[in-house]
Amino acid sequence: MDHLDRRTLREIVDRMAPADLHLYYVSGDAAKFWRNVRAHEAYRQDLEEIESEGERLLGEELPELGYGLFSIFRDTGSRLEYERVYFERRRRLNTFALLCLSAPDSMLYESLLHEAIWSICREYSWCLPAHLGENDDPVQSIDLFSAETGYTLAEISLLLGERLPRRLRRLIEGEVNRRVLGPFLAGGGYPWETATHNWSAVCAGSVGATALLLECGKEALTDVLLRVQTSLEWYLRGFGDDGACLEGLGYWNYGFGYFVYFADLLRSITRGELDWFARGKVRRIASFPQKCYLGGRAVANFSDSPPTHPIQVGLSHKLAEYYPELELPPADLRADYRDDHCSRWAPALRNLIWRNPAAIGGKREWDSAACYMPDAQWLISRYRSAAGMFGFAAKGGHNGEPHNHNDLGHFMLLADGVALVADLGCGEYTADYFGAGRYMYACNGSQGHAVPVIDGHGQEAGEERAAAVLEASTGEMEDRFRLELAGAYPRASAPKSYIRSFAWHKSELPVLEIQDLFHFARPPGSLIERIVTLAPPAIDQAQGVVILSPPQKETGAVSARILRLRYDPSLLSARAEERSYRDHFGRDTVWYALDFHVEHPREEFQVGFRFEFI
Length: 614
Known about the structure:
Layout: H1 6-14, H2 22-26, H3 30-39, H4 44-58, H5 67-76, H6 80-102, H7 107-121, H8 144-160, H9 166-186, H10 198-214, H11 218-237, H12 249-269, H13 280-286, H14 288-292, E1 293-295, E2 298-299, H15 313-322, H16 345-353, E3 369-373, E4 378-385, E5 388-395, E6 398-399, E7 411-415, E8 418-421, E9 453-454, E10 462-466, E11 468-473, E12 478-484, E13 497-505, E14 511-519, E15 527-533, E16 538-540, E17 545-548, H17 552-555, E18 563-566, E19 572-582, E20 588-598, E21 604-613
Antiparallel strand pairs: 1-2, 3-4, 4-5, 5-7, 6-10, 7-8, 9-15, 11-12, 12-13, 13-14, 14-21, 15-20, 16-17, 17-18, 18-21, 19-20
Helix pairs in contact: 1-11, 4-6, 6-7, 6-8, 7-9, 8-9, 8-10, 9-10, 10-11, 10-12
């Protein structure tokens, strides 16, 4: 879709399809659609999960968001306390709305939905405390979740129609206008409108969809669409031509998901006149997830991405309608309704209305595939043999990326979905996590990645801290990746040259070889090669071997493959230290820093490792 001026947009708004938007959602009779959902085997698990969540919520009071909870972030920097309650309230809203749609005869569900709507419309702010500055207006501000809340309420009001009391429909319309559309139209612009990451897509997509759903008037709708169009342009600028999401797969799912939710509605209501899906870059972005999986639910989780990720079935099926070349994901990757701790309405609904029942089933694992994404400088390879599914991923890039980690040259190795050389993923979000202390967190700083420590220094942050790719190739039996990484380190300790080379040999039991070649102006005082693992290392220094076995909790469930690491014991001394960090959900998680100390570093020397699955 080309960038359009206001006059052209206004003309398109005048030609928009008649506003019976129910047809967009169910393509015909709504009651018949929901009867089919209840009857079709393809939806059985989803409905069971929603009903199970409804049963749980029936036994619990609707939690309140009080002043004490709201103040915790300001006083301590901790986000989880308020957000757990906030998202639980959205879970009640979504669950009872979906149950009202799928079980329309239940007066109990309707009553509980009414209470949830009433309560959310009375909240002090729809924004999270972490997204509000001390002087920000709690009502006039628009963050990710206030925009989502407006979108959710507008959609629920439309879908339930007169089944909602008129008082509640008017309340929704009034509050959405007061908290989302009114501030957006009256404001001079929000910082996220020119963001090149998920905020621009989620906020703008939600605001745009809300304006379409509430039929806010042609002049106002034109103004909204004009600014939303600009925001989505900025969002797409955050991607290179390779379509990789530098924020990680989780934020692809979030940001690009909301881009698609809005873009599909816009395309439908304008009868194809406004079509974001015609862009080649959007097609390439849509293919990103199928490149990221390394076995089972495990993904190449660079940046703030969790180590495993389910698939939103509705989103993947809708994208496959637009782009038939996309590989439909294995059925076992389907997201459980309860998986989303933020309890987002838009993907939950679309997992039902966008699902293609004929596409359910099929293969249980991705095919072998390897790719190099030159803009992101990510090489990702999964390989299936008679011995199982194996995964390797490594990255270059720079240390000024969105949701950045200082991780140039970092890599991971997996067998059957179990990471033996790991990326810790995203930690617990706090004020400091996005502040001055970001790189003190192991999951963000280079100390928690498989990269060297030189004279006690790790890599530094900044876009100027960049890798140079010397070689990148993928093949049927071997992938190769070679990087110049000297620029990642502070000047005082940086080598004149540091080249890391990967060779991934794909046989029945694959082998990864790594060579690090250092060239210093003068010998460093110390150099440590670090490997990051969740498996307790068993070190045999005399033989130059380390054994990494799957963590005990995962051994019986996924894989029993062992990784044997070989090194030169005359050059390196191996030690392991147990450490811990708080993961994204605030859970203390153990990891191991497996360190190889170079005994006598010189001006020029080479370090080699060989990783063998056994």
